[in-house]
Amino acid sequence: MESLGRHDLKSTRLVCKTWCSYASRFLFDKIYIAPNETDLEVFDAITQDPILSKCVRQLVYDGSEFMPGLTSGSYVRDLWTQTATMFGTRSLIPDSIDSQIKDWTSDVARQEFSLKDAVAIKDWTYDVARRGLSLEDSVAKWRNHSLINCGYRKYREHSVYQQKALQSGDFVESLVQGLSRLGCLESVTLEGGWPYSVQTSLCDNHHGTPLARGWHPFHLRPHRWSWEPEAYEFEELPDGMRHYWIITAALVRAQRHIDEFAVGRNYLPGISPEVFERNDPMRPSTLGLDIAAFSELKRLHLSLGDCISLADFDDFDDGSAPVYSDNIEGLPKLLRSMHLLQRLDLDLSYSCEDYPSLFRYDQVFPQVMTWNNLEYMGLGNFASSATNLLYLLLIQMPNLKNVRLGITQLLEGSWESVIECLRQCSHSMTFEIDNESTLWYDEDTVLECDNEDINEYVMRGGRHPCLSDGQPAYASGAYMLQIDTSLRDRLPLEAKSSRTHVPI
Question: Under a CB-based contact definition with an 8 Å cutoff, are residues 437 and 405 in contact?
């Protein structure tokens, strides 16, 4: 049964009581929760079942939001954009599809949708290069069709229910009661949007919550988490903040300790760095809840904001240097409490208006903490001096076996010395620089070495990839002289002994 898919597992549960018991272990090892009526009913049914509740190992919290007060015109515009993303799966559209949907998709297909023209960076409004009907004419044409009316009615119903459940506290109470019954729960994943397979697929292999799996592909899906208009008197609530504090408070109230917490996986949006501010007088009751909930974590995957890539750096104008996030003092306090961590993924990929926003060593990691159990470290969009980076990887995480680096800026020191030090001090370490990432100094200077060559050198030795053609292989030992003396004195013996053989 471990090899069966979900469809077959559902069938095997009907054979007999014995088969039902074994199949349920795999069918209900992961369940979903979201502030929607359908998802809450399924969640309550599973957690109240004395057998099924013992099968649950992973809980996925879906924070997608049905926007309150969405007008019919906005609904058509957003659905238009959603449909445009489906054209990569046009071959999956069956011939027997409803004629009204065919007309709708034909209208969308006649427009040349260009991403460059679609997003105006300053205000995030949509514009398209049109060959057929204008978008405004399409809104007027489709506003009264049954496809639109039915979808818009369902969207508004879900929006009203969701806002009521969140504001009244009913959702939180259901979550707390359900968590208290999940005695075998090990992992919680916080998602800020429906997976891409739900957005683009017209086949039966939908993923996500029960509501997402049954959602009509030509009805507007909920938006990624964004804001609650009445949360603050004068400002919007940062991305993911409400749902982050809901799940942490629920875990504490239910006295449920977990081994793993993840947010922002699978290209879904992460939470805003503002979640980790600790000077917010509007929400004093939430301070420290995440420490109480996550202090015994063994695995943490944390993404802050939306993903950015090298393309974002290439588009900068002169003078558009990276900015560095401030006032996230709650993050190092959180990491300081996680003395049992074995795996840490930090995708610090947050963009601020027109600039990339990097996170410095002193903002993210406490200097006085040592993670003795940590074996895997993934880090992206990070800024640090060479001394602090080596101190982090070799001193604060002395038992690291796997390191993955994304886009990383070196504020002081040289990458050549970092690479040489890692090779000499980490003989058993698996080292990887992401294919889509680079090591750089500033917006104009990057380390021009092949990522695969660096990975190979750190793990297996050979010739330092940064040496010029005329230099002998042993000349790489000179790079060790560039490392801060106070740090070199704390490095493993292999690295210190090598300094006696450095040619001057």
Answer: yes
Element (H, E) at 478: none
pLDDT tens sequence across 297-354: 999 999 887 544 444 444 444 444 455 556 688 899 999 999 999 999 998 865 544 4
What gap in Å lies between CA 264 and CA 61, rounded to an integer? 12
The secondary structure element, H or E, covering residue 180 is helix 170-180
Residues forming a β-bridge with 432: 404
User: Could you tell me if residue 485 is inside a domain?
Assistant: yes
| Type of residue found at 290 | D
- CB under 8 Å to 438, separation ≥6 — which residues? 310, 407, 446, 447, 451
3-state secondary structure of 189: strand
> What is residue 192's predicted lDDT score, i.e. its pLDDT?
86
Backbone angles phi, psi at 283, to 5 degrees: -135, 55
Distance, in Å, from the CA atom of 154 to the CA atom of 160, rounded to the nearest integer, reads 10
* Separation between Cα atoms, residue 440 and residue 278, nearest integer Å: 31
Domain that holds residue 430: 307-323+330-504
Q: Indicate the residue among 96, 122, 151 that finishes a domain.
A: 151
Amino acid identity at 152: Y
